[in-house]
Design brief:
Ubiquitin-like (UB roll); globular; 26% strand; 6% helix; mainly beta; 84 residues
Amino acid sequence: MNITLKLFATLTDYLPADARRSNQIALEIDPALPISKIIEPFGLPPKLVHLVLVNGKYIEPEKRMTATLMEGDVLAIWPPIAGG
């Protein structure tokens, strides 16, 4: 099954070098994998996986261990953002 993973801000550094400019990568995944297992190979520090959206819908932290995706979904992740 194919999905798109988008990482934002400092998380783009965890993408392969050729994907950093566009901040996204197409992935072929096992449909049974939950979000937590999809992002695991990228080595994202758990403290930096703050805002997780699937097709623009927020996924609560406790659901990321069990929520699965569907063909064509877009998984977007932002780190915590500080500002003033």
